[in-house]
Amino acid sequence: MRVEQPYLLGTPPLPLHCNNETEQPVVIIVDDDVSVRQALSELIASAGFKPISFASTVELLNADELYSPGCMILDVRMPGTSGLDLQHYLARNGNPKPIVFLTGHGDIPMSVQAMKAGAVDFLTKPVRDQTLLDAVIAAIAVDAARREHAAVVKHTLERLETLTPREREVLHEVARGRLNKQIAFDLRISEVTVKLHRGNVMRKMEATSIGELIRAWEALPAGIGQSQMPKISASPDRASARLSR
User: Fold this and answer.
1) What is the C-alpha to C-alpha distance for residues 28 and 102, in angstroms, rounded to an integer?
2) What is this structure's pTM?
3) Fewer Cβ close by (within 10 Å): the C or N end of the chain?
């Protein structure tokens, strides 16, 4: 592989340096060619990221780096498990690690397969340094966005656990766009009580507006919000009235 350092002209990509609050992005390189691993490691380090290289997918799986923040530069064809096989393995095991494929043996069907499975880019060797770095930066941005979303969901679920069953019912109805008087009617409580529960929900969920509260609710993965809600059962009189309509 040719590493074209002179190609890096103009303004270089802005590196995501580590600080006291965030970890430095790690770029995992998997390629069976030692010269490629060395060249890529030097390029990644020059851009301000932390490179870690492996000669095979098996070597990577035996290490403890798959869940570190960052992305992967992955060859497609290697002895043993291929890069595409590793991509499928990670997806099945709930690890959506952003992948930039870099191969000297790619074709259109292979690239389509990789991109459909979620790859950030599919590049062929030799590749311009800037092209590869652009793909790496895009992949790291994808990973950062996913981690931020996961942190928001985790925080929302933790806040949700602090609500009483009645407060969860009120939250569910508010998220549906129901008015206080409608919620009061369905739950057979007064509007004043609904307002009290609604205020408690806002405080416990750390929401400054109804819009923010609804967005937090909608950010939860499908099915999780419903599983957190107690079932609202109608009284016998009300159930009979509904059936008679």
Assistant:
1) 12
2) 0.72
3) C
pLDDT, tens digit, 9 for 90 and up, residues 2-17: 444 333 323 333 333 3
Percent helix, strand, coil in the chain (nearest 5)?
Answer: 50, 10, 40
User: Is the CB of residue 123 less than 8 Å from the CB of residue 132?
Assistant: yes
Tell me the C-alpha distance between 166 and 201, whole Å: 10
- Let me know: does 178 contact 197? Beta carbons within 8 Å: no
pLDDT over threshold 60, residue 235:
no
Q: What angle do CA 71, 73, 79 make, to 5 degrees?
A: 130
Asked whether residue 146 carries a pLDDT value surpassing 80, the answer given is yes
Buried b (16+ CB within 10 A) or exposed e, 79-102: eebbbbebbeebeeeeeebbbbbb
Tokens 């590049």 -> residue: 123
Residue 242 CA: distances (Å) to CA of 29, 179, 184, 189, 234: 63, 21, 17, 19, 10
Residue-wise pLDDT for 33-79, tens only, equals 999 999 999 999 999 999 999 999 989 988 888 889 999 999 988 87
Residue 104 phi, psi dihedral angles, 5° rounding: -100, 5
